[in-house]
Amino acid sequence: MLHLLALFLHCLPLASGDYDICKSWVTTDEGPSWEFYACQPKVMRLKDYVKVKVEPSGITCGDPPERFCSHENPYLCSNECDASNPDLAHPPQLMFDREDEGLATYWQSVTWSRYPSPLEANITLSWNKSVELTDDVVVTFEYGRPTVMVLEKSLDNGRTWQPYQFYAEDCMEAFGMPARRARDLSASGAHRVLCTEEYSRWAGSKKEKHVRFEVRDRFAIFAGPSLRNMDNLYTRLESAKGLKEFFTLTDLRMRLLRPALGGTYVQRENLYKYFYAISNIEVMGRCKCNLHANLCSVREGSLQCECEHNTTGPDCGKCKRSFRTRSWRAGSYLPLPHGSPNACAAAGSAVGTAGTSTAAPAPAKASRLFQLRPKSPQVMPIEEFEDCECYGHSNRCSYIDFLNVVTCVSCKHNTRGQHCQHCRLGYYRNGSAELDDENVCIECNCNQIGSVHDRCNETGFCECREGATGPKCDDCLPTHYWRQGCYRLLRRRFYSYEAFMGTWGAAVGISPQAWAGGSPNARTPALALHLQLGQSHRVPERSLHISGQDGFRPEDAYFTDRASGPGDPARSSWNGSQSPGSCALQGTLKALGPVLRCTSHS
Q1: Do residues 408 and 396 touch, judged by C-beta distance below 8 A?
Q2: Angle between the 230-239 and 216-223 helix axes, to the nearest 10 degrees?
Q3: Cα–Cα distances in angstroms (integers) from residue 64 to residues 80, 81, 82, 88, 101, in the given order
Q4: Distance between CA atoms of 129 and 412, rounded to whole angstroms?
Q5: Residue 100 reports pLDDT greater than 80
Q6: Least reliable range by pLDDT among 125-139, 169-183, 361-375
């Protein structure tokens, strides 16, 4: 009877084909023993275990209360958001609650009442654990989908981020990338980061609500439209470099960059209809256990694998203390249909796999490679191992036995990290390049004066000093001017241009009407009105200098006189009433404003 039960358990993995059994009890001529299989947990609704964070603070509506409109009727603003009233509040938790039939609850941002300042929000989903996506990520927006958005992922609990997919109604304008669809990707590009226009163009807030990150379309490249050929998918997940890692993450982040506009441009009279509202986020996947566990449970508020194969850790990512006779390795889907468990083994033991028997390495070799020295961890050449993967940016790898990790050494092409998968400081990820591309990292090229440092974020934007702006911090805000850095313009007791020119024009005998159309460029921080006195070369050139951008202050104006010979100009103040002589308007120069020719009264 026991033999029949063992035979039944042995056949289960063949029947299931889902890698849901880690081991079975078998009887051989040498006696009963465990036979190990590659295994993975069941698919689950990951949103039930997520922690959500909304940034920046104050982006959620209701504090203070405000009214908002819909795109369908922007003039009937009868809707209200009030954080102090549970019936009118829209907190982040409503993105993950279970909704009654026909009743949508949703998180909502403030409206774009502060236009033209950007209305941007970050929605971060954290699991504090590596998970693997198995189906589409679906975000449901009430009142219209964003016109510009970026989905990002993290593999290190939010310390670093990389783009996952870009969304825009015009990809080339928003991100400088051509629009593509996941279903059109080739097998070699199934894990390519792309920009799509499918989910951003206006089609009515009630008709089109969903924004997707298409996992199924990428799986279908290998498993077919109905995902029936899973054997081929599992084979490609093992053999295609970077494909399995593409669907692995610890965090997801949605960067909402521009709200729905109703198919038009921003209309200042309708700013209360521009906002974000998310009613549901669906994420299907499983715990990543490196094919060493088929169960995942919640411990101390976090998901953890119930590890088999003599492994341990949140992701079953290392061998147990007494089973370290060789380097830890992840399980493998291959060979089909049972895979390879790559179980950790104790010295002198034999580890069974489905259809094979693997002996442990010799004790002498094990002691040489894996002797633990906490005060001085060994770093061994990777030539002893076969699982070195550096995406072509290094051909050297080392095993650090104290940390139980294999890491690449001397990463090239401006990369860094355990597998040369990150960019060096001062560089950012090229979203259109594969991980094994030599041009995967692009230099930030931040302006040395305008930026805080030479590093940028994952989209190439530098951190600017006060007053500086632009992707590389090489421009100034309208309220600042450039002088080896961006400096704030003073704003005190400004005279209007018309008032100033009227006063000065009267002083030199020119009516205010003569100045019509002569207003200087608003972006010019200093204006010089050049006055040529007389016709003799011995008569100096006299210029009236006016400081300011948003207006003019006569007390800051002054003359400079320069003779035809060399030397510094002589500077004299102007009291607002003195006249340099009889002047006539000669025209307008773009950089200088009105130019006058004057003759001396002397």
Answers
A1: yes
A2: 100
A3: 11, 9, 7, 12, 30
A4: 29
A5: no
A6: 361-375
Question: Where do the H-state alpha helices sit in 269-417?
Answer: 363-370
Considering the segment(s) 44-287 as one domain, its CATH architecture is Sandwich (2.60)
Q: Is 447 left (phi over 0), alpha (psi -120 to 50) or beta?
A: beta
| Amino acid letter, residue 525 | P
Residue 237 has pLDDT above 70, yes or no: yes
The DSSP bridge partners found for residue 296 are 305
Distance CA 389, CA 384 (A): 14
Q: If 0-12 CB within 10 Å is exposed, 13-18 middle and 19+ buried, where does residue 103 land?
A: exposed
pLDDT at 483: 80
Region 2-41+307-365: CATH code: 2.10.25.10
- Spatial distance between the Cα atoms of 288 and 185, rounded to a whole number of angstroms: 25
pLDDT for position 125: 97
Q: Is the pLDDT of residue 219 over 90?
A: yes
Encoded tokens for 184: 């059109």
Which of 13-27, 344-358, 398-412 bottoms out in mean pLDDT, i.e. has the lowest? 344-358
pLDDT level of residue 327 (50, 70, 90 thresholds): confident
Tokens of 526: 């200093």
φ/ψ (deg, to 5) at 193: -80, 125
Calpha distance 240→185 (Å, rounded): 15
286 φ/ψ sector (left φ>0, alpha ψ -120 to 50, else beta): beta
- Residue 255: count of CB within 10 angstroms of its CB: 22
Indicate the domain borders of the chain: 2-41+307-365, 44-287, 497-599
What's the sign of the alpha-carbon dihedral 306, 310, 313, 317?
negative
d(CA 140, CA 142): 7
Tokens 């922007």 locate to 74
For residue 476, which of 528, 525, 427 has the smallest C-alpha distance? 525
pLDDT number for residue 171: 95
- Distance CA(520)–CA(592), nearest Å, equals 7
